[in-house]
Design a protein that fits this description.
There is one protein chain. By secondary structure, the chain is of the alpha+beta class. It folds into 2 domains: 234 residues, FAD/NAD(P)-binding domain (3-Layer(bba) Sandwich), CATH 3.50.50; 123 residues, D-Amino Acid Oxidase, Chain A, domain 2, CATH 3.30.9.10. The chain is built from 12 helices and 19 strands. The strands form 3 sheets. Strands 1, 2, 8, 9, 10, 11, 17 and 18 form an 8-stranded mixed beta sheet that branches. The structure holds flavin-adenine dinucleotide. The site of flavin-adenine dinucleotide has 35 residues, from helix 1, strand 16 and helix 9.
């Protein structure tokens, strides 16, 4: 069968939050895009992931015309709780920074982005296979892929690799140029979603001798809870009843006394790691989001960092297509990476201080407890945490 030829300005690989937001911002500036997504839309929308939006992410979504529902269905959070055993304190985000975060699930963000893209008649191909990029060092690059038994070839000015941690885009940066910085943590997160009332109106990050726990939520009737587990634990070892028992032991009694337990509607185990790939650009290829960096969910940074990449990248494309200047695109990798390194550092610090290591690491566990006590008393330390948590400025 003959190959079908398509043409666009920016071809985007990956129809997750990064790819969709990039396309949305560009299309609103009359820049032509095509999105290629390996999964069905239903599959993408079923993924339960991030839930906390930084101030900057909310502004970005609002400016892209997809912020409306965040302010109706999302919940503004002015602070969060950190506990160490029975001891707890609050990081007052709004008093310290003048800003807040919004609890609004990644699933909802993705629904809003697909809806907005449909309204702009975006070209989104789902269930694509065998995506292959070529001619990245020419004026025009090519992407071949299969869709519904047909081979397609896109000719484009630029390729945006927004295809997440398992994507193919990053493989096109030559090995001799690419640097991967990776930390694998010696623990995982077991997370559940349940149709129960959240136990507190703000998130609780709980450090405990038995391991870390996080009490989070998606809305007033939907709770998201996590507990630290070992890297070898399997879901089958964690029936709901055992999960709730363990969670309750790790949260301060003043909060766990109010917990509503119920059946889990989603349960998953995630191994934690931090990863940064440098550079985020090679020739006509630009990486954004999880394709270039991954971090543990502690600190709620993954989705937010993906969005700050998209802010810088969309600025670069808009500058090129409206003013003919490549400056911002050429600076994209350096600019994005500055924020990436600071954010990954914060996420790693928060992960290290809140998690418990095994009995062989009693020293680290005790030092972490002491540091948490210091933070409770130090306005300066709380200021640093609050500023990072609401998100560094773009
Ligand atoms: C289990 C889990 C829990 C998380 N929890 C949190 C959290 O609590 N807080 C937080 O801030 N972040 C969290 N994250 C991280 C957050 O979800 C990601 O940072 C965010 O999804 C990044 O968006 P993205 O668009 O860059 O990548 P993705 O969402 O991964 O999207 C990439 C898309 O590319 C598609 N794709 C892959 N390969 C190809 C290909 N070859 N061709 C075409 N398409 C392709 C994929 O199907 C996918 O739809 C979590 C992540 C996971 C996995």
């Amino acid at each position: 069968m003959k190959t079908k030829n398509l043409k666009t300005q920016v071809a985007i690989i990956g129809g997750g939050p990064s790819g969709l937001l990039l396309s949305q911002i560009l299309m609103k500036q009359n820049i032509d895009t095509i999105i290629l997504e390996a999964q069905s839309r239903e599959y993408v929308l079923k993924r339960i992931r991030a839930g906390v939006l930084e101030h900057g992410s909310v502004e970005l979504l609002k400016n892209a015309g997809v912020g409306e529902r965040i302010f109706c269905d999302g919940k503004k959070h002015d602070g969060f709780i950190i506990s160490s055993g029975e001891d707890s304190f609050r990081i007052d985000l709004s008093t310290i920074t003048g800003k807040s975060v919004y609890v609004y699930g990644q699933t909802e963000v993705t629904i809003d982005l697909y809806k907005a893209q449909d309204e702009l008649n975006a070209q989104i191909f789902h269930n694509v296979e065998n995506v292959k990029i070529s001619q990245l060092d020419s004026d025009l690059s090519k992407i071949r892929f299969n869709y519904l038994d047909q081979t397609y070839e896109i000719t484009c000015d630029f390729v945006a690799g927004c295809d997440g941690s398992m994507g193919i885009s990053k493989n096109y940066i030559p090995d001799k140029i690419k640097k991967n910085y990776i930390v694998n943590y010696p623990f995982s997160w077991l997370g559940i979603l349940s149709n129960t009332k959240p136990l507190n109106h703000e998130l609780i990050y709980a450090s405990h001798d038995r391991g870390f726990a996080l009490a989070s939520m998606r809305n007033e009737k939907l709770s998201r809870y996590y507990i630290q587990t070992s890297n070898t634990d399997k879901i089958e070892q964690w029936p709901d009843e055992l999960f709730w028992k363990e969670l309750i032991k790790r949260l301060p009694k003043e909060y766990s006394a109010n917990i509503e337990v119920g059946k889990s509607i989603e349960k998953s185990i995630t191994k934690l790691r931090s990863l940064i790939l440098e550079p985020m650009q090679w020739q006509n290829l630009f990486l954004a989001g999880d394709a270039a960096h991954i971090m543990p969910p502690t600190g709620a940074k993954g989705l937010n960092l993906a969005f700050s990449d998209i802010f810088y990248l969309s600025e670069g494309f808009i500058n090129y297509y409206t003013k003919g200047s490549l400056n911002k695109l050429n600076n994209y990798s350096d600019k994005a990476l500055k924020r990436v390194w600071k954010t990954v550092e914060f996420s790693k610090w928060m992960t290290s201080i809140l998690h418990t290591l095994g009995d062989n690491n009693k020293l680290m566990n005790k030092l972490n407890k002491k540091e948490l006590q210091k933070i409770k008393k130090s306005k300066n330390a709380q200021k640093v945490i609050a500023n990072q948590y609401v998100g560094l400025p773009y």
